[in-house]
Structure formats: C-alpha cells, structure tokens
Amino acid sequence: MPVKKRNALFVALAYAIFWVMLVGAVVLFSGDEALFEKAVVFVQVVGTWAPTFALLILFKTLYPGQTIKGFYKNAFRGRVNFRLLLVATVLILSVDFGLVGFAAWTKGVPFLSLLHYSFSGFLITLFSGATGEESGWRGHLQQSLEKDRSVLKSCLIVGVIWAFWHLPTWINFMNGFLYMIPLDILDKISFAFIIGICYHRSRNL
After folding, report:
1. Using N-to-C axis directions, what is the helix angle for 82-107 and 180-202, rounded to 10°?
2. How far, in Å, are 30, 99, 193 from residue 142 at the CA level?
3. Whole-angstrom Cα distance, residue 80 to residue 154?
4. How far is residue 66 from each of residues 59, 69, 152, 183, 204, measured CA to CA in Å?
5. pLDDT tens for each residue of 7-62
6. Cβ–Cβ under 8 Å, residues 55 and 142
7. Are 205 and 55 in contact (CB under 8 A)?
8. Whole-number percent of the chain with pLDDT over 90
9. What pTM was estimated for this model as a whole?
10. Cβ-based neighbour number of residue 38 at 10 Å
C-alpha cells in the first residue's frame, strides 16, 4: 500500500475512533446528566488517545517488519534540548494568553475570569492531550510526511488535520461566538508548527 494511502487510513481511523466514542457517549448517556458528565470526562481522557490507538492497530501496515518497541525507541532517540523546550513553552503560552485576552476583550469580561484551574483538570490534561495523541500525530504522521516534504509543509498538514480533529470543541462556540472557530484553528496550527519544529530539531517525543 502506498505511503499516502497508509497515512490517509491512519488519519481516518484516528478520527473514527474518537467520533465513535463521542457519539456513543452522547447516545448512551445523554438522558442521565451525572453519567453524561462522567462519560464526557472519559472521552476527554481516553478519546485523545485515538491517534495512538490508530497507530497501534495499523502498526503492521504502517511499519512492516518493524516492532512497536523499535518505533518508540526511535521516537525518543534524541537528547532533550531544554533551551528549545523553554522557547517552545514561552511561544505556546504567548499564543494561548493572546487568544484568551482577545476572547476576554470581545466578551467584555476580565482576563482572569477566563483562566480556570483545578486539580482534576490538571490530571485530565496530564493523562490526555499530548500524552495520548503525540505518538500518532508527531511520532508517526509528521515523520512520515517529512520523508518527501519540508518540515514546514509537514507541520502545516499535521496542523490542519489536528485542528479539525478538535471539531467537537467548536460546539462551545456555536452560541454567539462563531468567530472563535477560526481563532481555534489558528491556535492549533500555530501549536503544530511550534511542537513540530521542536520535535524535528530534537527527535525526542
């Protein structure tokens, strides 16, 4: 199977796994508010692992003759560049705070009122998000795209795929904040460039 078709299959499966979980939670638990909230948290945590699940399911197709252990050894083979990590962190926080500031200005509310922190939220973020999805997006897809494309073009492609993978979060913007959708897409694509270039330079997932 050609590389393009393998990658298309990987992206389709990553989307499908996440959407099946999300739709399943809505269909099964929407009638019970308490159970629905727990189901949403479950999808937030486990659903973000969809790209990794897709990678593992299709591993023999994507990497014939290789082992999962070998894949992860390669994905973490580089030394961590802490200076680059610091710069990436500052850039990501700058983009995030910039978007929050814009949202606060358009809504006419204090900046701090849009910043929320909780220990449960921290745990959800710790075990979901990048922890769950980066094996698929950067570890597999970006590396595969870089074989015949520049790093910037690869980051852009992954960024667009990654941005639209977050489509369910746009439901929060449907109530009078549709202008936030393009900002969210820009946010994800910006992150994809920052994370992608950081990974390209260090080769440590």
Report:
1. 180
2. 36, 26, 11
3. 21
4. 9, 9, 27, 39, 19
5. 999 999 999 998 888 888 877 777 777 787 778 778 878 888 999 999 999 999 99
6. no
7. no
8. 37
9. 0.82
10. 13
Q: How far is CA 45 from the centre of its chain?
A: 12
Give the burial class of 188: count Cβ atoms within 10 A of its Cβ; 0-12 exposed, 13-18 middle, 19 or more buried.
buried
Which tokens is 74 given?
A: 């390669």
With beta carbons less than 8 A apart as the criterion, state whether 133 and 50 touch.
yes
Each residue's pLDDT tens digit, 141-183: 999 999 999 999 999 999 999 999 888 777 765 566 677 788 8
Query: How does residue 131 score in pLDDT terms, banded at 50, 70 and 90?
Result: confident
- Distance, CA of 49 to CA of 53 (rounded, Å): 6
The token pair at 52 is 């990794």
